[in-house]
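Please go through the sequence and fold tokens given here and tell me how the chain folds. Record follows.
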Amino acid sequence: MEEEKMNLRLDIDVQKLETKKLRKGKNKVEEELDSLKKDYKRLQLSMKTAELEKTSERLRAEI
């Protein structure tokens, strides 16, 4: 009986450690995803700005 209790406690400790490790990994992935989303938005804005500059240069050249 005591041995079973000890084994259960060990199992609980292992599960807690695994859960903690998974949460840390999840948080890291979420941070990386947020960073990628910000980079993507900046890239999209840069592309729009570049396209507008090209368009305005074409208009000036036509005038």
Q: What stands out?
A: The two ends are 93 Å apart (CA to CA). The chain is about 95% helix and 0% strand. Helices lie at 2-62.
